[in-house]
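Usage

Read records sequentially. Each one opens with the input sequence:
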Amino acid sequence: MADLATHAQWSSKRGSWQIAKDLPSSFKYAAQGIAYSFVSQRNFRIHLVIGSLVSALSIWLKLPFSELAILVLTIMAVLVLELINTSIEAVVDLAIGRRFHPLARIAKDCSAAAVLVASLSSLVIALLLIAPPLLMRLTR
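and closes with the structure output:
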């Protein structure tokens, strides 16, 4: 987790505190959020790499489009939850600074737990969809 100075420095450099005046600005701010998570959050990068590998493996195995759609949905759910987790951590850090508060710990732990639950369910879904065709291809 990045410290408050890093959050403040990123925000001031990127202008993310501003309200979007038009649709392109909204997309720009959203892209800055993704870029911030990619640069500062190791787990976001890990989920992105694993999701890319699962996607490539699924295409190589020629999974049906419906199964690809399920995998894309689960991968994106994990990434979305990782972004929400990052924002919750930033808001909690902003609100309490470096002080400890049990409610801050609960907020951070529960948002991290949401990512964990989504990651584990995504893993199970990927195994259910990929394992049978992968085993068939490997045993040929």
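Summary fields computed downstream for this record:
- The chain has a mean pLDDT of 90.
- The chain is about 85% helix and 0% strand.
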